[in-house]
Amino acid sequence: MAGEFDLIARYFNWPAQGEGVSLSVGDDAALLSVKAQHQLAISVDTLVSGVHFPVNTHPADIGHKALSVNVSDMAAMGAEPRWFTLALTLPEYNTAWLEGFSAGLKQAADDYGVDLIGGDTTRGSQTITVQIMGEVTPAAALKRSAAKLGDVIFVTGTLGDAAAGLALAQGDSSIYASGEKRAYHDYCIQRLNRPTARTVESRIIRQYAHACIDVSDGLLQDLMHVLKASQCGAVINTDDIPFSEALSSLHPPEQCLQYALTGGDDYELLFTVPDDQCDGFIKAMSEQQLSCQAIGYITDDAEQIINQYSHLLTATGFQHF
Ligand SMILES: [Mg+2]
């Protein structure tokens, strides 16, 4: 498994903590056991330097985010994240970068309770690929295609922070170098660089929801994936879209909405709950102090969402179907 620099063995060979790992890093393949009555959920995501994160992003943040965005896909499926593999392409052997990246990745692995079970390294433009594996019972799996007429549409957390963070990271951040806005600035950057996969929320959501997706490309685009797969439409009450105090302090409402609808990298969950299950769901979430917000409902008019936001869709070059 180790590549030309033997990097996996040197920087990424942690003992497996969780269940199901018979053989981890160091052989030609890992050996895993999936729990009885469960299915294996698998997803892969690649981060390219300068495309998926600014080139000056701290390596520890890159390591943490590379795993978080994959764990987020498990949360969106209603699956428990268990194991991951890492494919690392680097232009050079940079010890400081590798130590930072490894520390961030390990932190995320500990945060989410997942084990690194193998990997590969190559030389080239900086690219990080993580493949995540999780376990889910067939009944709990949250498919995009499962939204039903009348379902209430919810999101976890707040939207738009990461897009605002990206604008700040790419722009002149010295404008917030001091004063009260500095804390809001830092918050949005943190949301961009250290997204939190909603694994805790997912454990409740999967007991109630029909369909679910994680918001990686902006609310509108990810909602569209659900609507297309479920062959239905939606009405979104834009006044109900949750913004953080940081976002609404830095930007006027129109800009907050634009970031939430068409920005990316929030990694909140968007999901649909049958109307008669909403009370129980909201109670279960609030008992664990987990935030969620109803923002609309599912309709049988597949064109509805398009008509409502046509100006924003046009402005961002959004392609439907
Ligand atoms: Mg996803």
Automatic annotation (TrEMBL):
Residue numbers binding Mg(2+) 1: 45, 120
Annotated EC: 2.7.4.16
Domain PurM-like C-terminal: residue ranges: 150-303
Binding site for substrate: 52, 265, 318
Lineage: superkingdom: Bacteria
Residue span(s) of domain PurM-like N-terminal: 26-135
Any one Gene Ontology BP term: thiamine diphosphate biosynthetic process
One example GO MF annotation: magnesium ion binding
Pfam short name (any one): AIRS
Pathway per the UniProt entry: Cofactor biosynthesis; thiamine diphosphate biosynthesis; thiamine diphosphate from thiamine phosphate: step 1/1
CDD domains the record matches: ThiL
Residues annotated to bind ATP: 119-120, 144, 216
Binding locations of Mg(2+) 5: 217
Binding locations of Mg(2+) 3: 28, 73, 214
Residues that bind Mg(2+) 2: 45, 73
Catalysed reactions listed for this entry: thiamine phosphate + ATP = thiamine diphosphate + ADP
Residues that coordinate or bind Mg(2+) 4: 28, 43, 73
Keywords noted in UniProt: ATP-binding, Kinase, Magnesium, Metal-binding, Nucleotide-binding, Thiamine biosynthesis, Transferase
Protein family: Belongs to the thiamine-monophosphate kinase family.
UniProt function note: Catalyzes the ATP-dependent phosphorylation of thiamine-monophosphate (TMP) to form thiamine-pyrophosphate (TPP), the active form of vitamin B1.
Entry-linked HAMAP family: TMP_kinase
Something else known: Reaction mechanism of ThiL seems to utilize a direct, inline transfer of the gamma-phosphate of ATP to TMP rather than a phosphorylated enzyme intermediate.
This protein's name: Thiamine-monophosphate kinase
Organism (species): Leucothrix pacifica
